[in-house]
Q: What sequence folds into this?
């Protein structure tokens, strides 16, 4: 059987917002399998902001297939323990097919081998979202790092997105007040009406400091930082004594050019003498990575998967995905996500 692959390669480090010119599609015939190999067909690919701040910002990435988490189906196997039809959670990047071995890793991390997806947990796409990286990130940041308590006010930015939508709902599950910040009335209505947030403020309406103060009348106990920049500036005056600010990310900085750079959230909060929580304070407040990497021996990670899956099954936790189809959708969907055009977890589906 001849299989033709299409994959997307970075051709230049984007200057500011990525454009289609920073990428090219490479078409190639997949090689015959050797013993110990299996042929994977990508079924789901997750697109995430870290691809811009990490891989695409690094000149060494030029010429390489863009990285990314995947769920793939084994369509041919010469690999013991893996059979045709198995679903594999891996890290195959922006491509339709790949060749793998049982020793392949996720995130190039020796502690994170590829895994079979247990379909009883949820649909395969959730392995890359709410039951994968972004769900774990929300769980770790809010429950383990910030240690949310009932009655507290939690503010989360990029609230309708992959991480933010989970953070607000976990805050509610734990008895806290959940206030989102999102771009536009539709995203804000989704957070309150569909997900049960107590309030959601549209930062694009042009009145964020006053609107946020009204939505958080008792101040802010936890600010789950996803955005940075002007959104962080609006939150800072509302932070209560004893507040916690887990810095998950700061997407408003990722496309800035050298001359546009502004202080990171960590630098801003330190300058204000405010507490910044986490294990990796030099770049971000915390990373899902340490948490997931330890999953084999880390009971909290097992708890996270079990909790998230059970909350979905019982209807306490909802999720929304922003799905586009096929390899040609990767670049526009990624650029769209960086511009706020996604509505939920950004995913690429590869159908027959
Ligand atoms: P989202 O699904 O939230 O998508 C990105 C969203 O960011 C957009 O939809 C847009 O929402 C918002 N956004 C984009 N530009 C701006 C801007 N200039 N100002 C304000 N909002 C903006 O992405 P994720 O949930 O995957 O990621 C959210 C954050 O979490 C990112 O900073 C990411 O780097 C970080 N992250 C960190 C991890 C960790 O381990 N620490 C793991 C996963 C994610 P809107 O329309 O509302 O503006």
A:
């Amino acid at each position: 059987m001849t299989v033709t692959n299409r994959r997307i390669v970075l051709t230049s480090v984007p200057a500011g917002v990525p454009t289609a010119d920073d990428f090219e599609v490479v078409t190639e015939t997949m090689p015959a399998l050797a013993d110990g190999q299996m042929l994977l067909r990508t079924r789901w690919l997750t697109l995430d902001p870290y691809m811009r701040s990490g891989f695409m910002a690094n000149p060494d990435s030029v010429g390489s297939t863009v990285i990314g988490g995947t769920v793939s189906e084994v369509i041919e196997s010469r690999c013991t323990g893996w059979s045709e039809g198995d679903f594999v959670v891996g890290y195959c990047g922006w491509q339709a097919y790949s060749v793998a071995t049982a020793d392949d890793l996720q995130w190039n991390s020796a502690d994170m081998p590829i895994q079979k997806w247990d379909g009883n947990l949820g649909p395969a796409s959730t392995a890359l979202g709410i039951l994968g990286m972004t769900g774990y990130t929300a769980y770790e940041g809010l429950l383990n790092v910030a240690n949310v308590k009932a009655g507290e006010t939690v503010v989360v930015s990029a609230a309708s997105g992959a991480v933010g939508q989970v953070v607000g709902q976990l805050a509610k599950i734990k008895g806290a007040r959940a206030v989102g910040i999102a771009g536009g009335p539709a995203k804000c209505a989704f957070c309150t009406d569909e997900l049960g947030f107590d309030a959601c403020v549209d930062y694009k309406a042009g009145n964020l400091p006053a609107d946020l103060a009204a939505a958080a009348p008792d101040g802010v106990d936890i600010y789950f930082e996803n955005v940075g920049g002007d959104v962080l500036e609006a939150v800072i005056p509302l932070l209560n004594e004893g507040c916690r600010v887990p810095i998950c990310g700061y997407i408003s900085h990722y496309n800035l050019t050298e001359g546009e750079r502004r202080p990171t959230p960590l630098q801003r909060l330190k300058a204000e003498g405010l507490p910044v929580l986490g294990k990796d304070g030099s770049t971000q407040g915390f990373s899902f990575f340490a948490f997931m990497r330890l999953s084999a021996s880390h009971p909290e990670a097992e708890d996270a998967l079990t909790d998230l899956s059970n909350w979905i099954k019982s209807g306490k936790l909802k999720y929304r995905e922003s799905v586009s189809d096929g390899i040609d959708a990767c670049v526009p969907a990624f650029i769209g996500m960086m511009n706020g055009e996604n509505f939920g977890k950004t995913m690429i589906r590869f159908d027959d």
Summary: The first helix runs from residue 50 to 53. The pocket of NDP is lined by residues 48-50, 133-134, 137, 158, 160-164, 182-183, 187, 226-227, 231, 248-252, 284, 286-288, 337, 340, 342, 345-346 (CB under 6 Å).
